[in-house]
TrEMBL record:
Tagged with keyword Signal: yes
GO terms of molecular function: FAD binding; oxidoreductase activity
Residues in FAD-binding PCMH-type domain copies: 188-367
Source organism (scientific name): Thermothielavioides terrestris (strain ATCC 38088 / NRRL 8126)
Signal peptide: 1-23
Protein known as: FAD-binding PCMH-type domain-containing protein
One Pfam family cited in the UniProt record for this chain: BBE
Length: 659
């Protein structure tokens, strides 16, 4: 009999579920009964190396048969979804109307969690919220670590490197915020109960099989950038993919629709990793603007807009093949020639819906020139710009969006109010940047000059700063901002405005007035002028059809002060969805699922467009068990998080909606 300890099991007050001394054995080939430990179980669970380059150790039927032969308890829980054993388990797990909740009789016992831990090679982590080190009674108080977390709180790496931290703390219920260590208590809130630190494919397979068989809620976290609370969840087991960091350059690849250079990237690769590697390989990759966003996690599966989008479409349009672990636990490749429905769905149909992506192969392009411009313009009493001139200048810019989009533009700017709504304090408008991939500076300046002439005639005070680089990496490192994250008092929504609105002057000006009214009422506006049309010859993707004819994409949102009552808080949330977005939906029915409103009323059409019915059909087919669930994900409306106010957070039990 061996006493097993869980190396990473950390205890803290409030959620203490200490591991007991556990006795667990396995039977060896010659019939001896020996203690089950991380040393004895690992060889019995010998995984199969299928792809040495990706270090993809896989779970196979042979491994499971071996473990069954060794009589390790609970092995049925790790069977694949297409095996007979699991058909029985899945039935049992779905008897109730809710996912199994900590404390339920059906919640796995400490012994069962320990078996799971052993099988994953000790990769199971019992959740300790990132801020716990700031709480004197947490049992893990550490003043020095706390100071480090507080100092780096707004950096994405602080959260990406933690197994369960997310960058919109609103959705985990703002529990255990490191800033409140001396004034509140640390609870788990919407954090998952456990996370598995993924280093290889078999661990994902084990986690999915375990969640499906036990009925424990499953979530997937890569970096935690999600704005809708999709990468956390109370009572869940989380699959943490951040450490799947590897890239491989493929100088030339041939698929039915593409021939040229490509990169294979692990699921943990972030935009900054991708750009640095592409620069080294002498190519240009398609990624987002912020360095910490995970490329093949939520970003590409959700569509993915990029400085390259005006020329080459969405990130989803770059994908040549995807390796993915399905809801039934099987590891498959989806491409133009294999699992083609899945291939379509994974390119824009959203993360955490059809499986866990382990890696992707994506198109890359030759190095090219990037010319562009940046500026910071302020309005208000202490400047040379009145708000009236500012709006005239803005409308002049907006009117030209279809033309700029036609030239491959990526115009990325934000407008922030300099004071409360109605204070007359003015705005700050930062262009960061406007650029065109592959365009020489002289051509770029010629494109922009007519607008600047109009502004001069208006008496608008501005100072453009032009640039030109012979590669993307230099343009990106020098002219893009570093985003700060983890502001808890902030919620955003977004809209995609189609080109057709510009063909009718009345409609166009009414759209501008509506957007202006929202900004005047206190919203920030993060706006992108680009048209991510589907590139010629690239296969159909599930990405939101509203993206394809958009020439303007806007993110709007509100922040609020600490200390609001629940009613005041809900008034702000309702204002965003039911007032501000209601004003804009007539002009932009679509929104971007990765930067959208978690309360979007008709999220099926808004986030997926005309692709929704086919996506829903595939979801039911590929994930009949609803192992994967996230707010506003395809098919998510048949479950609801319990005990929420008007806004859906991730702090409650996940239950079926009665039909
Ligand atoms: C500062 C900032 C800048 C941004 N800039 C851009 C931008 O320029 N362009 C753009 O298009 N978007 C941008 N986004 C939005 C971004 O695309 C989304 O937040 C995206 O979901 C991030 O994916 P992630 O994997 O990093 O995040 P996570 O929060 O870890 O995951 C997001 C979603 O994907 C799921 N998921 C994660 N990994 C996997 C996986 N391996 N397989 C299946 N599902 C998975 C999660 O469960 C979750 O539902 C930005 C966001 C922020 C906060
Ligand atoms: C097994 O667990 C012990 C601690 O319990 C740890 O020190 C050791 O490194 C682990 N070995 C393996 C192979 O994981
Ligand atoms: C089965 O377990 C034994 C150790 O008990 C190991 O030697 C063998 O490689 C395992 N086979 C498979 C397929 O995992
Ligand atoms: C599953 O069950 C079916 C019939 O119920 C049987 O024919 C099949 O052999 C079983 N498969 C396995 C792997 O046991
Ligand atoms: C904050 O992060 C930076 C890297 O961005 C690191 O160098 C520094 O040590 C961190 N500060 C603290 C106090 O941990
Ligand atoms: C809590 O109080 C201690 C002692 O006053 C102080 O050093 C520490 O910075 C405070 N922690 C936080 C998170 O404010
Ligand atoms: C206003 O314009 C004048 C003349 O160009 C300039 O000197 C001054 O710096 C401007 N003021 C501000 C606040 O930009
Ligand atoms: C232009 O848009 C306005 C406002 O939506 C509408 O009333 C009008 O019929 C449209 N005109 C044409 C020609 O479509």
């Amino acid at each position: 009999m061996a006493v097993l300890s869980l190396p990473r099991a950390l205890l803290f007050a409030g959620a203490a579920l200490p591991f007991q001394s556990l006795a667990q054995t396995i039977t060896t080939g010659d019939g001896k009964v020996i203690p089950a430990t991380n040393v004895t179980v690992a060889p019995a669970a010998q995984a199969v190396a299928a792809d040495a380059e990706a270090n993809a150790l896989q779970l196979t039927d042979a491994v499971l048969a071996n473990l069954t032969a060794h009589q390790l308890s609970d092995i049925d829980l790790f069977q694949f979804g297409d095996s007979n054993a699991t058909a029985r388990m899945a039935k049992r797990a779905s008897v109730g109307d809710c996912k199994v909740w900590p404390g339920d009789a059906a919640w796995p016992s400490p012994l069962t969690w320990e078996v799971f831990n052993l099988l994953t090679g000790g990769a199971l982590i019992k959740t300790v919220p990132i801020g716990a080190v700031c709480y004197p009674n947490s049992g893990v108080y550490n003043a020095q670590k706390c100071a480090g977390i507080l100092a780096n709180w707004t950096q994405s790496a602080t959260h990406a490197n933690d197994p369960t931290s997310v960058m919109s703390p609103l959705y985990q219920g703002e529990t255990c915020m490191p800033q409140n260590g001396n004034t509140s208590t640390c609870t788990l809130g919407g954090f998952p109960s456990y996370a598995v630190k993924i280093e290889s494919v078999y661990q994902i397979q084990l986690a999915i099989n375990f969640a499906r068989s036990t009925g424990v809620r499953l979530v997937v976290k890569n970096t935690g950038h999600d704005f809708l609370g999709k990468s956390c969840g109370a009572g869940a087991l989380s699959i943490w993919t951040h450490n799947l960091k590897w890239t491989r350059f493929i100088p030339s690849i041939r698929t039915p629709s593409y021939s040229g250079p490509a990169m294979e990237i692990g699921a943990g690769i972030e935009v900054g990793d991708l750009y640095a590697a592409a620069n080294q390989y002498g190519v240009t990759a398609v990624g987002g603007e912020c360095k910490g966003v995970g490329v093949s996690g939520g970003y590409t599966t959700g569509g993915g807009h990029s400085p390259m989008s005006g020329k080459h479409g969405l990130a989803a349009d770059q994908v040549l093949s995807v390796n993915v672990v399905l809801p039934n636990g099987r590891f498959v490749t989806a491409s133009e020639t294999e699992n083609t429905d899945l291939f379509w769905a994974l390119r824009g149909g959203g993360g955490a819906t059809f499986g866990v992506v382990t890696s992707m192969t994506v198109k890359v392009y030759p190095k090219m020139t990037f010319s562009g411009v940046t500026w910071t313009i302020t309005t208000g009493p202490d400047t040379n710009n009145t708000d009236d001139v500012f709006w005239q200048a803005m409308y002049a810019y907006w009117r030209k969006f279809p033309d700029y989009a036609d030239q491959g533009s990526y115009g990325y700017s934000d407008i922030f109010p300099r004071g409360p709504a109605g204070s007359g304090a003015g705005y700050t408008w930062t262009m960061n940047p406007w650029l065109v991939p592959g365009m020489a500076l002289a051509d770029f300046q010629a494109m922009v000059q007519p607008l600047l002439d109009e502004w001069t005639a208006l008496g608008f005070d501005f100072t453009p700063v032009f640039f030109e680089h012979d590669n993307f990496y230099d343009a990106w490192t020098r002219h893009f901002p570093t985003e700060s994250v983890a502001n808890s008092n902030l919620r955003t929504a977004s809209r995609l405005f189609p080109r057709a609105n510009w063909a009718n002057e009345t409609l166009r000006e009414a759209m501008f007035d509506a957007v202006r009214s929202v900004v005047e009422d206190g919203s920030a506006l993060i706006q992108y002028n680009m048209n991510p049309a589907q590139p010629q010859g690239s296969p159909d993707a599930a990405a939101n059809t509203h993206w394809r004819d958009a020439v303007w994409y806007g993110i709007m949102g509100a922040s609020w002060a600490d200390g609001l009552t629940q009613d005041q808080f809900e008034d702000v949330q309702k204002m965003i969805t039911l007032d501000w977005m209601a004003r804009l939906r007539p002009y932009g029915p679509g929104g971007y699922l990765n930067e959208g409103d978690v309360m979007e009323p008709d999220f099926g059409d808004a986030f997926y467009g005309t692709n929704y019915p086919r996506l829903l059909q595939l979801k039911r087919q590929i994930d009949p068990y609803d192992v994967f669930w996230a707010p506003t994900a395809v098919g998510s409306d048949r479950w609801r998080v319990q005990n929420q106010g008007w806004l859906t957070l991730q702090t409650g039990k996940l239950c079926k909606v009665s039909e």
